[in-house]
């Protein structure tokens, strides 16, 4: 059980002297932040469970007193034990066996899920009961009568490089949940796009009482890339050209996640012209792949050499081209 | 446990209530409050998409977690759905911007 070694006051972030009002306020605030339907972070589920469990105990003045007196094991202490006697017995005869034997007898009918319970099934109920307050006899919110409730969907983010999105990849995710940290291997198919969600059925929040868990959704984020820009499945690259390449036409090799492709630049290409290579963008598992757009950008040397300057001057003298004239 | 039901394309009231672990009357109340979607056929019978089972689970978790009444749950689920839609479009927009 995850919360056994945690201090319930620390879980709620209140001092041991906190009033019942303070405890309720702290609980309400934390519950709003971490409820599995509000906070999709897989780790929130565990926090919510701990918070609920702490509140279950501290919200009832009587269980709170017992918790203060006997610590986290207070449920295993029979109701009528005097705290002083308990402390002495504990210090003396190496605690454990004696208290366990007494638990079944002392718990009685009012303690519902806890009675006599050290088996795996009770641990499970304890684990899940805390989430929904459905545990019998454990406080004011008990006895609502809800049965099994399926778990909430959760969401985590995964960042991919453009190359990973293109080729598909594998990721090992480690998720924190009430049962501890687990890692799952996820195969990310080729051609996922930014904002797309990958559904991992049954990997979300746990259900109570054996109800099915929710799903985990992985939201895909594509990391910015120096060379490429992605728009859906279309891949945009910058195509740098010298003025004479743009004027006379050429064939340029452009790097893509799948290797280099040749782009034919027609003569008379101006900056901003987009050359499309159909189907050379990201693959699409269900349909047409994206396109590759190479956008021409004419570059000039910051400093011209003497012969370059000479040639440009001659060009300027003979050319009648006016780029600012609208037709 | 209820795989056979989940594979069915739609569930009638009794099937849905059984799968959700609720009394059919409570399910009808959810529909009347507009917090659960259902189709009503010409004969007046209610039919449910199995995906609505997840909506029921959320209603029950919210109710248990916050002691909300059902009208408030309708507001909360609407807001949560709107936030989810906004986050999705934000993610798409962010992906495009880069």
Which features does this protein show?
heterodimer, A: 327 residues, alpha+beta, 4-stranded mixed sheet, 3-stranded mixed sheet, 11 strands, elongated, B: 98 residues, mainly alpha, 3-stranded antiparallel sheet, 66% helix, disordered N terminus
Q: Can you give a write-up of this model?
A:
The complex is a heterodimer of chains A (327) and B (98). Helix content of chain A is 32%, strand content 22%. Chain A is built from 10 helices and 11 strands. The longest helix of chain A is centred in the N-terminal third of the chain and has 17 residues, at 42-58. The radius of gyration of chain A is 33 Å and the shape is elongated. By secondary structure, chain B is mainly α. Chain B is built from 5 helices and 3 strands, in the order αβααββαα. The N and C termini of chain B lie far apart (46 Å). At the A-B interface, strand 5 and strand 6 of A face helix 4 and helix 5 of B.
Tell me the total number of β-strands of chain B. Answer: 3
Radius of gyration of chain A, Cα only, in angstroms?
33 Å
Order of helices and strands of chain B: HEHHEEHH
| Continuous helix count of chain B | 5
What structural category characterises the helix and strand content of chain B? Answer: mainly alpha
Oligomer: heterodimer
Mean pLDDT of chain B comes to 83
Q: What form of chain B results from the Cα inertia axes?
A: globular
Number of helical regions of chain A: 10
Strand order of the largest sheet of chain A: 6-7-11-10
Write the H/E string of chain A, N to C. HHHHHHHEHEEEEEEHEEEEH
Structural class of chain A: alpha+beta
Share of helix among residues of chain A? Answer: 25-40%
């Amino acid at each position: 059980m995850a919360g056994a070694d945690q201090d319930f006051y620390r879980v709620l972030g209140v001092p041991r002297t906190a009033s019942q009002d303070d405890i309720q306020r702290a609980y309400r605030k934390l519950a709003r932040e971490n409820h599995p339907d509000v906070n999709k972070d897989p780790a929130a589920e565990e926090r919510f469970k701990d918070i609920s469990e702490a509140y279950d105990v501290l919200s009832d003045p009587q269980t709170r007193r017992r918790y203060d007196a006997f610590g986290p094991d207070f449920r295993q202490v029979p109701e009528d034990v005097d705290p002083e006697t308990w402390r002495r017995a504990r210090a003396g005869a190496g605690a454990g066996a004696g208290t366990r034997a007494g638990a079944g007898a002392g718990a009685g009918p009012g303690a519902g899920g806890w009675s006599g319970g050290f088996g795996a099934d009770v641990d499970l109920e304890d684990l899940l009961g805390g989430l929904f307050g459905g545990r019998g006899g454990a406080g004011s919110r008990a006895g609502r009568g809800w049965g099994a409730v399926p778990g909430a969907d959760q969401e985590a983010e995964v960042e991919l490089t453009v190359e990973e999105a293109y080729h598909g990849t594998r990721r090992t995710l480690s998720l924190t949940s009430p049962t501890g940290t687990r890692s799952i291997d996820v195969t990310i198919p080729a051609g996922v796009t930014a904002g797309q969600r990958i559904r991992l059925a049954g990997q979300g929040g746990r259900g109570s009482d054996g109800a099915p868990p929710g799903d985990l959704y992985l939201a895909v984020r594509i990391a910015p890339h120096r060379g490429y820009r992605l728009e859906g499945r279309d891949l945009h690259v910058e195509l740098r050209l010298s003025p004479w390449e743009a004027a006379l036409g050429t064939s340029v090799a452009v790097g893509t996640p799948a290797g280099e492709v040749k782009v034919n630049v027609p003569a008379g290409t101006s900056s901003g012209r987009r050359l499309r290579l159909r189907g050379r963008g990201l693959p699409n598992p269900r349909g047409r792949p994206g396109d590759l757009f190479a956008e021409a950008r004419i570059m000039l040397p910051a400093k011209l050499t003497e012969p370059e300057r000479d040639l440009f001057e001659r060009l300027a003298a003979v050319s009648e081209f006016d780029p600012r004239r609208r037709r | 446990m209820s795989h056979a039901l989940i594979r069915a394309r739609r569930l009638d009231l009794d099937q849905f209530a059984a799968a959700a672990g609720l009394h059919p009357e409570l399910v009808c109340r959810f529909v009347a409050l507009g917090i659960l979607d259902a189709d009503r056929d010409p004969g007046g019978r209610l039919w449910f998409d199995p995906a609505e089972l997840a909506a029921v689970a959320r209603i029950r978790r919210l109710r248990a977690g916050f002691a909300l009444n059902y009208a408030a749950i309708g507001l909360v689920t609407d807001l949560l759905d709107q936030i989810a839609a906004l986050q999705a479009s934000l993610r798409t927009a962010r992906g495009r911007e880069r």
